[in-house]
Design a protein that fits this description.
single chain, 256 residues, alpha/beta, 10 helices, 40% helix, 25% strand, ABC_transporter-like_ATP-bd, lyase
Length: 256
C-alpha cells in the first residue's frame, strides 16, 4: 500500500538547539501514528513543521493527495497550502480555544470550514453543523451558543467537529486530551477512536501520555532531544522497549 505522507530528513533548529534532527517516517492510509517524548523532545515542533505553522530548515514533506498526486508540501504555493489545510488536512490543537473562533457560535465554527470548501447554501450548512454536533455528542440545541459557554471537554469536541466536517484525509493532533480531567479524557478518547475508524482517517498524534497512544496508535515514534530514538508497532515498543530512554518513560508511568 502506498504511503499517504512521507517525512524525509526533516530538521529544525533554534540557534544551537536542534529541535528536530533529520526526522524521517511514513504514514499510511487509515493509520494512527503516535509521537511521544518528554517536554523539549521536539515532538510538537515536528508536528508544527509538518503543518507549516513554522518553517523547517531542511528535508521535505511529501503528501499523496485525493487526486493521487504527490505534493511536496514545502514547494507548493502558500494559497495551495492553506487550501490543503482547509480541505484534506486538519489540525486539532491542545487548547481548543486556539482552534475555535470563540466569538462566533458553535454552528458558525463548523459552518466556516464548510464555506472554506465552497458550500454557500445556508440551509445545508445549518443541517450539516447540526449533524456534526450530534456526531461529537453535543446537543444541536447548543448550535447558536458561543464556545465560551461550553466546558473544556465540549470545546474540544466542538473543535473536532470543526476539523472533521470537511472530511480530511490527514489529521494532526497536538495533545488533544491535555488539560482535561480523567473522566472527560476517557470520553474524548472513545469519541476520537470511533470517528477515526468511521471516517478512515490517518492521524499523527503528539502526546506525552503513554495511555493515550496505547489506546489509539497503531505505530509509535519515541523522540528525545530532537531525534527518533525508537519506533515500531505500538504494542511492541511499549511492551518490549529497547532504548534506555523508552524504558525509562514506560517505567515512570508504572510508578504509583
Amino acid at each position: 500500500m502506498p504511503s499517504l505522507l512521507e517525512v524525509q530528513n526533516l530538521s529544525k533548529a533554534y540557534g544551537a538547539v536542534q529541535a528536530c534532527d533529520h526526522i524521517s517516517f511514513s504514514l499510511y492510509p487509515g493509520q494512527i501514528l503516535g509521537i511521544i517524548g518528554e517536554s523539549g523532545s521536539g515532538k510538537t515542533t515536528l508536528l508544527n513543521a509538518i503543518a507549516h505553522h513554522l518553517p523547517h530548515d531542511s528535508g521535505q514533506i511529501l503528501y499523496r493527495s485525493a487526486a493521487n498526486e504527490t505534493l511536496n508540501v514545502s514547494q507548493i504555493s502558500e494559497s495551495d497550502r492553506r487550501q490543503l489545510m482547509r480541505s484534506e488536512w486538519g489540525f486539532v490543537k491542545q487548547h481548543a480555544c486556539d482552534g475555535l473562533r470563540m466569538k462566533v457560535t458553535a454552528g458558525a465554527n463548523i459552518g466556516e470550514r464548510l464555506m472554506d470548501i465552497g458550500e454557500r447554501h445556508y440551509g445545508n450548512i445549518r443541517t450539516e453543523a447540526s449533524r456534526w454536533l450530534d456526531q461529537v455528542e453535543i446537543s444541536s440545541d447548543r448550535m447558536d451558543d458561543l464556545p465560551s459557554t461550553f466546558s473544556g471537554g465540549m470545546q474540544q469536541r466542538l473543535q473536532l467537529a470543526r476539523v472533521l466536517v470537511t472530511r480530511p484525509r490527514l489529521v494532526l493532533m497536538d495533545e488533544p486530551t491535555g488539560g482535561l480531567d480523567v473522566s472527560v479524557q476517557a470520553r474524548l478518547l472513545d469519541l476520537i477512536r470511533q470517528l477515526v475508524r468511521t471516517l478512515d482517517l490517518s492521524v499523527i498524534l503528539v502526546t506525552h501520555d503513554i495511555g493515550v497512544v496505547r489506546l489509539l496508535a497503531h505505530r509509535l515514534i519515541v523522540m528525545r532531544h530532537g531525534k527518533i530514538v525508537e519506533q515500531g508497532l505500538t504494542d511492541q515498543v511499549l511492551d518490549d522497549p529497547h532504548h534506555p530512554y523508552t524504558q525509562a518513560l514506560i517505567s515512570a508511568t508504572l510508578i504509583p
